[in-house]
Amino acid sequence: MKRLILVGGRPWEGTEAKRLVSAILRDSGASVNIALCLFAVPERDRDQTRSWNIDRFSHYCDPKRLHWKVLATEDFAATSSWAHIIYIPGGATHVLREQLASYPELDRLWDNKTIAGSSAGAVSLCTQYVYLQNKTFGEGLGWVPVSAIPHYRDAFEDYTDQDWSYLEAELLKRRPDLPVVGIPEGHFVEVIIS
Questions:
Q1: Strand ranges (DSSP E) for 44-187?
Q2: Which of 14, 33, 102, 120 is the most buried (most CB within 10 A)?
Q3: Domain ranges, residue 91
Q4: Mean pLDDT of 22-32
């Protein structure tokens, strides 16, 4: 079983952010091990992304109960086993998907965990997704059988209603068997899978 939390993307402020942190930590104990999966983030930005995400979690709960590690290729299995929660921030979806696909034991390693992803981290867990920066489409891990759109009709100020409608139609055309799920900026959806 896995508990997946799919976040449409930043911002992490206010009531919705508090609800998100509560949802991610809901089934955890007094001491929580969180592994950050930063594969989607460019190497030069990883320290800043790590700090920002730790700060966001710490802002909405007692930081003394949280213990952090960053997933790395050399100790991926060990860190995955150590973690109660895997958190995957956004970034380059295709890069993230390729990296995660390189671990054939991923499904087993992340079993019985809460896996929360934001933007690229969320859609990479789905069957199909759209990469908004250049309107390309990709195949995710398929753990959530949907076609996913992050930042749905909420961010990407240069997107028009026609752009969003085009993406919805394209996803349906490519996989008519899958529902299209749009997750707005800062909002989240929880999915339990066996």
A1: 66-70, 85-88, 114-118, 126-131, 136-139, 144-149, 180-182
A2: 120
A3: 2-193
A4: 93
